[in-house]
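About this split. The held-out portion is used to measure sequence recovery: a designer receives only the structure tokens and must propose an amino acid at every position. Recovery is the fraction of positions where the proposal matches the reference. Here is one held-out target exactly as it appears in the evaluation file.
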């Protein structure tokens, strides 16, 4: 019985050593428990086998130390679980940052000033949006697995105050999960002081008169089913929105 108690104490001593982590405070507590176990082992060596009462007491103390060790095991398991969650959260945040396409923009109200009013009056408007999806034969489709191209057409409205010049028209297509669709021709542009992604763009020669504009985006991967939202930007303004649904 004495040898059995001693062997169990040695096993516990080894288990504590294997339980140590990168947590300094926790390791100190584990070392304290190891010291208690070593003390019992040292004492047990000098206890005679005939001293059943003391051996029984040491066996009881061993049971107490075993329960304490179980508590530490639960604590370490909980700590490991939390660390795994934190690692996953960190990975998600890093992926969002690297993709640079998932952050949705908050529209900031124009300041009611003379310069702001003039600039606002120069804002172009869009009408008669039509968004269609084409397959590899340039035929209309609503099937996600057959989508090859998105075609978005609209009227860019008349505006006598707006500058007559070549203008970049940017189109952003947001997938059902909020991600901006991109391909090798996509890029970034400035909007409200930030760089945001665009799916496709087209340069038009705007002369202040109503004109028809069509923008195309070619898919490089298979798309998901659901609703896709399209926004069009000119001169730093979000000037129109439409959508299409893939099944």
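Reference sequence for scoring:
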């Amino acid at each position: 019985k004495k040898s059995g108690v001693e062997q169990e104490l040695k096993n516990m001593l080894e288990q504590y050593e294997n339980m140590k982590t990168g947590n300094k405070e926790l390791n100190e507590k584990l070392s304290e428990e190891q010291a208690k176990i070593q003390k019992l082992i040292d004492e047990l060596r000098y206890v005679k086998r005939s001293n059943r009462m003391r051996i029984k007491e040491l066996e009881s103390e061993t049971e107490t130390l075993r329960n304490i060790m179980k508590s530490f095991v639960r604590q370490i398991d909980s700590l490991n679980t939390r660390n795994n969650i934190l690692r996953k959260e960190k990975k998600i945040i890093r992926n969002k940052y690297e993709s640079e396409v998932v952050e949705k923009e908050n529209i900031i109200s124009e300041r009611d000033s003379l310069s702001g009013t003039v600039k606002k009056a120069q804002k172009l408007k869009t009408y008669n949006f039509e968004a269609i999806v084409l397959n590899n034969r340039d035929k209309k489709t609503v099937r996600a697995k057959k989508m090859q191209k998105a075609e978005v057409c609209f009227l860019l409205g008349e505006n006598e105050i707006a500058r007559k010049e070549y203008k970049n028209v940017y189109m952003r297509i947001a997938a059902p999960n909020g991600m901006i669709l991109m391909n090798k021709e996509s890029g970034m542009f400035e909007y409200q002081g930030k760089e945001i992604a665009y799916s496709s763009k087209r340069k038009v020669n705007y002369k202040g008169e109503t004109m028809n504009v069509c923008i195309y985006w070619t898919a490089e991967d298979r798309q998901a089913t659901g609703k896709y939202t399209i926004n069009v930007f000119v001169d730093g303004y979000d000037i129109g929105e439409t959508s299409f649904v893939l099944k």
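Annotator remark: The chain is about 40% helix and 30% strand.
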